[in-house]
Specification:
The protein has helices spanning 2-9, 16-24, 61-78, 100-111, 133-141, 156-162, 168-180, 199-210, 243-259, 276-282, 323-331, 345-360, 365-372, 376-382, 384-389, 411-416, and strands at 31-38, 40-41, 53-54, 84-92, 116-126, 146-152, 185-192, 216-221, 263-265, 269-271, 287-289, 292-294, 300-304, 309-312, 315-319, 337-342, 362-364, 394-397, 400-403. It is an alpha/beta fold.
């Protein structure tokens, strides 16, 4: 859902020609990341706000894979030859909807794109109800190192209310298959704030998830935005927990993760101490992008596929969302970007400030002033609203601002005070 929020904020001023220039400008020898988007699902979960479309056959997948490969080739012609791919993320939608033969075909295209780094991280979003042993074997063969499994909630009543029925037994079976083929890192997502969730049901789902021993967990708050995601009108809004109940659900899950030895990472992640994200958090290397927290240090993220988002040092770009328009652009030999945002110097500064708040719960204004050659007086003015609104939740030490420990939950709200492009009040989902 963070991907949706970023996409909604992009304008129409960026197109294929400008993005082509940004790709050509990638420094020689740079490490880049790839995001490949597969927008198809066999079922459309009601809670999901991502751009997806349903299919019960492979018919649309065949041309779509050909378009992804063609887009990779278009990007390859523009990108410096000695670039290295450091991270690959295959997301959706449901990328495991691709049959094994297509996964191998995609893997071959990636192999021919650019060399990968020795520490390549290749993550794949997996729906346990739409994957089998052959697909898992194919994904491992093409390089998958991390699997990300969406759980949402294990309680049958909650699952039925969001159109996502997924048994614990099936989820456990898929986890065992992933571990058996040597996938060394497992991430799982769970939601709070869903219809009919109670503290008891939340505790039960978290304990079942803990029994699967994931290396990393994302505890996201469900964003009810039916004005943006029309399928969410199917969700019984009268059964959604209120703000106080949402907080109780979050705290219930949080306490269980901490008791089981997970480290709290940022505002909504938990990780085993040996996990790479936990290491990045401890050493100040953690970052946050439109997909959430990451240890990806690459300055360039190239998105491929319909609606995929890219980030360059120069700005954001997003491919056209409609798969037919995406197909037409690729067929005509053009990149499919149709909107985006070019960064100003102040945008880069504000982005760094927001990332510091979200990752470190602190702002080091002297360091920011030095890094961006920005006057301290201007930084103080830019943080005035934050310092005033959250004066009871922050501590000041010279020119350094830090959220107090109990204020971690309002980090997102604090970051909004630094966002020059914040949307009008009332069009957001609940921050907690």
């Amino acid at each position: 859902q963070q991907r949706v929020a970023v996409g909604r904020a992009l304008g129409r001023g960026i197109g294929a020609d400008q993005v082509a220039g940004w790709i050509r400008a990638v420094p020689k020898g740079a490490r880049v990341s790839l995001y490949l988007h597969v927008p198809y699902c066999q079922r459309l979960c009601w809670f999901c706000a991502c751009r997806t479309q349903g299919t019960t056959t492979d018919r649309p997948l065949v041309p779509y894979l050909a378009q992804l490969k063609a887009e990779l080739e278009l990007v390859s012609r523009l990108l410096p030859q000695d670039v290295t791919v450091a991270q690959i993320h295959l997301g959706g939608g449901t990328p495991t909807i691709l049959p094994p033969a297509m996964l191998h075909e995609l893997g071959a295209a990636l192999d021919g794109f650019r060399p990968t780094s020795s520490d390549l991280q290749f993550s794949v979003e997996i729906d346990p109800t739409e994957v089998d042993a052959d697909r898992i074997a194919a994904l491992r063969a093409i390089g998958m190192t991390r699997a990300s499994i969406g759980v949402q909630d294990f309680d049958p009543i909650v699952q039925q209310s969001i159109g996502r029925e997924q048994s614990y037994a099936r989820t456990r079976e898929v986890v065992e298959m992933l571990r058996a083929v040597g996938v060394g890192s497992l991430n799982m997502d769970i939601l709070f704030g869903l219809p009919h969730q109670t503290v008891a049901r939340m505790a039960g789902s978290v304990q079942m998830l803990l029994a699967l021993n994931p290396d990393r967990v994302a505890l996201y708050g469900y964003a009810h935005v039916p004005w943006m995601a029309r399928r969410q009108v199917l969700i019984p809004s009268e059964a959604l927990p209120d703000a106080e109940a949402r907080l109780a659900l979050f705290e219930t899950a949080r306490e269980l993760f901490l008791q089981d030895g997970y480290q709290e990472i940022g505002i909504d992640h938990f990780a085993r101490p040996a996990d790479s994200l936990a290491g990045a958090a401890r050493t100040g290397r953690m970052r946050r992008n439109f997909q959430g927290y990451t240890d990806d240090a690459s300055d360039v993220l190239i998105g491929l596929g319909a609606s995929a988002i890219s980030r360059f040092p120069q700005g954001y770009a997003q491919n056209v969302s409609a798969s037919s328009h995406y197909a037409a652009a690729i067929k005509n030999g053009r990149l499919a970007a149709d909107r985006g945002h070019a960064f100003s110097d102040q945008d880069r500064l504000r982005a760094a400030m927001i990332e510091q708040v979200m990752c470190d719960f602190a702002l080091d204004l002297p360091a920011l002033a030095a890094r961006f050659s920005w006057p301290m007086a201007d930084l103080m003015a830019m943080t005035e609203s934050l310092r005033h609104r959250f004066r009871d939740q922050i501590s000041l030490s010279g020119d350094r601002i830090r959220l107090t420990e109990h204020a971690r939950l309002i980090a997102r709200l604090a970051a909004r005070e630094l966002d020059a492009y914040d949307q009008p009040e009332g069009r957001h989902s609940r921050a907690m």
